[in-house]
From TrEMBL, chain A:
PANTHER family: DNA PRIMASE LARGE SUBUNIT (PTHR10537). InterPro entries: DNA_primase_C, DNA_primase_lsu_euk, DNA_primase_lsu_euk/arc. [4Fe-4S] cluster binds at residues 280, 359, 375, 415. Pfam families: DNA_primase_lrg, DNA_primase_lrg_N. This is DNA primase large subunit. Residues 9-18 have a biased composition (Polar residues). Residues 270-438 form the DNA primase large subunit C-terminal domain. Binds 1 [4Fe-4S] cluster. Residues 1-20 are annotated as: Disordered. Keywords: 4Fe-4S, DNA replication, DNA-binding, Iron, Iron-sulfur, Metal-binding, Primosome. Transmembrane segments: none annotated. GO terms for biological process: DNA replication initiation; DNA replication, synthesis of primer. Belongs to the eukaryotic-type primase large subunit family.
Automatic annotation (TrEMBL), chain B:
The keyword Transmembrane helix does not apply. One of its GO terms (biological process) is DNA replication, synthesis of primer. This is DNA primase. One of its GO terms (molecular function) is DNA-directed RNA polymerase activity. Keywords: DNA replication, DNA-directed RNA polymerase, Metal-binding, Nucleotidyltransferase, Primosome, Transcription, Transferase, Zinc. It comes from Brassica carinata. Its cofactor is Mg(2+); Mn(2+).
Amino acid sequence: MEVIRSQKRTPSNDTVSNPKIPLYLTAPPMEVRLEEFELFAVDRLRVLKGVSDGLARGRNPKEMDDLVDTLWKEHMRDPDASVMLNKDIISHFVLRLVYCRSDELKKWFLSMETALFRHRFRLQNFEAQRAIVGEFGLPYKAVTGAELEGLKERLGQVVRSLGQISPTVEAVYYKVPFEEVPDLVASRRVLIQKGYAFVAGSQLVSLVVTQFRSHISKALILTNRKWTTTIQEREKDRLTPIVEALSTSYLGPDYSQSTEYAEISLMDIDQVAKSSFPLCMRHLFEKVREDHHLKHGGRMQLGLFLKGVGLKLDDALAFWRAEFTKKVGSERFDKEYAYSIRHNYGKEGKRTDYTPYACQKIILSAPGAGDHHGCPYRHFSEDNLRAALGRMGLSSRGMEGVMDQVRNKHYQLACTMTFEAVYGTSCDAGINHPNQYFEESQKILKSKTPPAPV
Amino acid sequence: MTREEIESRGDETMMDAAQIKNQKPEEFFNVNYLRIYYGNLFPYSDIHKWLSYGHDGKHPGCDEYYFGRREFSFTLENDVYLRYKSFKNASSMEDAIKSNFPYKIDIGAVYSVDPDKRHAYSQTGTNVFTPVERELVFDIDITDYDDVRYCCSGADVCSKCWPLITVAIKVIHTSLTEDFGFKHILWVFSGRRGVHCWVCDPKARRMTNEQRSAVAEYFRVYKGNENNARKVALMGYSLHPFLARSYVDYLKGFFEGELQATQSIFSTKDKYEKILAMISDEDIQSELRGKWENSARSSLSEEAISLVRWEQLKNTLQSKKHKAPTLRMCVEEIVFTFTYPRIDLEVSKQMNHLLKAPFCVHPKTGRVCVPIDPNNCDEFDPLAVPTLSQLIEEINSGGSRMDVDDDEDSDTSLLAKSIKFFRSSFLEPLLKSCKEEIESSYKTKIGKSKDSFSW
């Protein structure tokens, strides 16, 4: 696969016989534009992160099938089937580069790609599935004719033993060495005879997923070797920075432009903080009110959040001034703090309009002594976190679920569960950004306010 | 060894003969006997041939270091335990055993490198010390059946409960050959209260831990502990063909015949309450209880009573089984609870698990761990297995001639029969097949290198 600068793309000549799911066995000989390199990868990453979220929430297989279908259609679809296929293949190989670089990354990528493959496979019809099995070059023969007749009775017994009252012996069975389907053997879901398991078409997933997983696992090791020995150095000015950024990227909206839901004024701010701020921002806000001061990290995290929430520059200046001057005096405020607030709004210096921090960035920050920024789910002690959650109104039962997620280091899921407990509603998308929390919360609260009497 | 040679060995042997005459009947085992056993009777070269799997150095395709990569462990007197022992060849193994007199010898896996040199290799990366081959093994111990045998408990075993092991051998052996297609299977008496099974096909030796675990789970039916009364739960509308075959060919007949005769599982209130607890319907339980409490004054034998009650139970369940899904196969569940094999899953799941070697002597009983013929396992009697003292006595009275190879018919020594069986029905077919495999993979390798021109 060759990555090129923006040029007309040469039509790809890959004669992939049309299976709907490519197997990523070899990197295809096509040219890829540099922009596509990153864009395709980002789209696929959205799908994989969606899969990850679904699994962490314990979705059952059918729900995962639907989730994968939705995610794929949303991010990877293209009206032109061959373009869609190319995007599929290219994005996978780019992400291999991204995720081969450490054991932890490899493990995540392998799990998600395998799950993605499993559910995409399940969504295919039987003919397509058979074609894919064939693509793997698995030497499994379909059992037919007299051999199948001789086995029919016992195959029916297997089906009945699994809880189906009238045995529908499927049309096709595959004769597979029993070693290749250990999970089907262990649960006695297949007939075994003379070392061969008779796997029904509908059970093919197990077989195929094992092969897929094993292949990707080996490929990642090879890719890693190539990366560390040649590619990383060779591409240090071109692809390497993109690859390194992709594994930590946040993929949601950036909230730099506030929306209709999110205009707040100074008068409302205390009330809104209590009702709609996520825990991290509530804490910072309370500390500002309490201490009339915040250190730099906290000023950045809260300040940008407030901008995203719709606080205008003038109101922001008034807010910070009102608090800080209780401690440091008006002149010092103008000299030392006002400038950086204006800077955040893009009115000073290089005039970049800074974007509010996403959860990922906040979680990775390192608050020190005297700091109050960061993610409470990560950075607070258990006792402090429980106290804070109590003040938000969580019951002790709700708190347990949240603490469980915290123990498993799923900080964003913990925040999502808090959201769900506070508003009594489910948040399927999951919280990825404090401003998202705020917007969702406002949506719910506004929909609950009774219409004004006429 | 000839009689002359035995007598010329000097005082040592004669002193032992005197000792034997004065021995207490319980003294089946002691270190001196063990020394003589290791000196004269332990079949070193047979064990070596087995575990070499044809790599005897005679064929260019042989791996001469194969035997040396096998782990052995010795348990010495006073429970001193030596792991990661390995031997270059049969004679170094023999020397080590004769100088250590281990009370127990365990066989482990074949590793990627000589276990002796394992510290030179890291645990990660490409040059690792890791198991590469190991027989698929099973361990069946009668103590796992304590909740369903009434004649003995703990370490004891008798002619009434040993048949449970016999049935287990039949069920597992049939499955290993019919379902899994294995051909080279060795069953060995564990010396006191159970059996071990060694599956030695090349395919079996190369199985991963995951695959071993899958086979062990395939065999697993009993999921019991003190907390549940219904320890076998057969769901679905029929039995899986493997379970159905085991039930029809072995378990049902055994339960309704021999088991009732030896264990009389319905004859007293304690016993039948246990069975009633397996029926998940209180009404049926009360109905049967009512019938049985009142017939206590019957003049029938215990066995006859049990059979009558079993018939009553079956009839009642047959008419009522549609009442709930958990009653559908309640009759089968009861039969399985009492008769289906109970293997120790942990032994089978990991390649590096050590298992006692055949032809060891059990320190508590003095009995030799002899092979069992799975096709004739009804004939096997654990209480008739030669003990160490019997063997020593036989040597001293000049009755054994250890040239087992010559004069097959006239050799009646106690151990010779077992060794002959080991050779003819297990070792010889195994080695023949190993040699064929080495030959053919060598030919393939040669063929491949002829075709390539890599410089």
